[in-house]
# Entry
Amino acid sequence: MRNRPLSCLALAAAVALTAPSFADARADSPQTRCDRLYLLTDKDHAVNPGVLIEASGDMPAYCQVDGTIDGTIRFRVGMPVEGWTGRFMYLAPGGLAGVIGDTTSLLDDGFAMATTDSGHEGANDPSFYRDDNAKINFGFRSNHLTAVFAKRVIAEFYGRPVEHAYLWGCSKGGHGALMEALRFPDDFDGIIAGAPAVDLVTGLLALSVENARLQQRNPLTMEDVAVLDANTRRACDTLDGLADGLIADPRKCTLDLLELDRLECTAERTEECLTTGQIETVRGIYTGLTDASGEVVVPGVYPGAELGGDFQLWVTGPVDFLDGTANELTTRVVAEILHRQPGFSPDAFDPVAGMADLAEAAAAVHLPPPDFGRFIARGGKLIVYNGWHDMPCRAGALENFYEETRRLNGPEAVDGFMRVFMVPGMVHCLGGPGAWAADYIQAIMDWVEDDVAPERIIARHPGEFTFMEGQVAIGGALVSWSEAILKAGAEAGANQFTRPLCPYPQYARYDGSGDPDDAASFTCVVD
# Structure
């Protein structure tokens, strides 16, 4: 019996000497190379045999491989059989994750792609916050480990390493993008962070709970939101020099200009008006969360694009894919994060004082201070975009984050690696009356590969899509959604006017002459 283990070892060695190595498989057919990716399986990675999927329509033939990391993190990698450019695009999941997203939309452009479910299953289910491992995976671990392993998979399939690694994500995906730049700066050369939820487990949750309470006391309907939309256009449309239904610089659209009291219902005015209580709700949404002294501690949403879909999703409902509204869902998120707090009650939760508790209980998900020194040192580039009228990922919160970034890293260093583009007439990630369909992917490629920093990006209005309508129109093209939404709008006959997106704090001001539908008639200015 003592000799048996030795015999087994000897047999294993003999097999290892005679069996074909993985390296030899690179000379084999794409089918064989794809199938043999299972050989990457080890104690930390369970990898399925890859599946070769035939070309169909605009989709080239590609190898798809699925697996898990650490038994909890599901991942998927897609690799075009021909035409790989050496580029890798990683999709950081948005929302509460729990599903596998887009790994195909850029294959025809020569990218390999990958994503993860963040280490738990079930979209819109915050109960994973009760599991410390799942919470850490969601916060930062799943994106990092998947990105690192996906590069190994890609290198094995093609027989050469990734040359340029990119990341794109919006909302929680944008948050994950910033987390990667701050915690694992060597993972990616270029990062696109959309609506990056910089206060994901603090201000976002606290303000959502407060707004849900305001809506419960004095509810708004979508008819009331239409009144707000018309009022904002009346007060602020021409501040940028052009009456076009858009507000190029909503920082100028103050509550004083809005004159909300003018909307109050009276005996003479019984339609297209708001009650006193509803006006209180609206003030809270625009102003943000205030402390006992009246100081704003969490900024609210800038006026504009009220009919763009965020009010329906977050405030009024109905929402087909949620039980209630997104603001109500965040109350559940708070309860799951603080489930270990003795005697916790959602009704007794103090949004102002409770932010410190949330940051501590969800430390893995809370962004660290924006010291990008290591990302800057390795030559990384970062493009951030955000709708001026984004309700959950408010532009005001990103403005504060940007100023802190400049303070910690120095203005000159920040200008060398980061551009922030605030998008007029856009709500959360996409949707709204503005020009918001833009090619951020080409912009980050130009910056990383040719050292051409984006001084302005031309965006196009794809059509009158709300946030939810836009999600339907893009289908599964979560990364290259700009192309998909423009195609959908063109098929609907939309007037697809253009505007320049300007690096913050600049905004696009109409020159006073020229075609107002043409971006060439606008200049990026600060005033």
User: Anything to note?
Assistant: Residues 132-158 form the longest helix (27 residues).
